[in-house]
Amino acid sequence: MTSYRGVLFDFSGTLFRLEPDPQWFAGLAGPDGRPLDDAAQSELLYRMTVPVGVPVPMDDDALRTWHARDLSSEDHRNAYLHVMASSGVTDADERSRLYGEFSDPLNWTIYPDTAAVLRAVRDAGLKVGVLSNIGYDIRPAFEREGIDGLVDEFVLSFEVGHVKPDAEIFRIASAALGLPPEEVLMVGDSAEADGASRTIGCGFAQVDPVPVAQRPDGLLVAVRGAGAIA
């Protein structure tokens, strides 16, 4: 076992995953008036959930909004409306409706081992934090699953004014747990975003953000492999 005294968990692709209901896309049409096919829907989903990079062409104003998307709810909404408009969703009302589905925390699906891992970390005497680049409150997803009480601190980018991979957000999150970074393990699906925690001395364990049904125990394997729990 290591000397970790706390674990920070990423949200998207780590604890929960956004897996759209096919009905969200019902009636969506592209510029040619034809329904978006499966390939177009899959590409749209990728663009709406990509953790880093710029998913569609953007001018200066759109690019500013994109880079600020996880710093305010307004920029988050505007950034993703632009992504949808650039991905073939031509109707403004449909873009607004679809954004509402994507940004509803109750539409996220929990990974099978999330609750067990959070409970095991707490039972081991470690602090638990959730650290997410996000433009809206995700706490309701945890409340729905009855696991909000297993989280000591939520550090959400739009609330603290910093985003991963900025080292400052990891400092803020470690401090929220009352721990020095070297006693904190960061668990996430992005080596670029979450792995940047290593620059201030945190440990890092990576998970694969595959569909929920394909990862029954990947979080447990990662946290156990890092030595945070037995």
Automatic annotation (TrEMBL):
Keywords: Hydrolase. This is HAD-IA family hydrolase. GO terms for molecular function: hydrolase activity. The keyword Signal does not apply. It holds the Pfam family Hydrolase. InterPro entries: HAD-like_sf, HAD-SF_hydro_IA, HAD_sf. Transmembrane segments: none annotated.
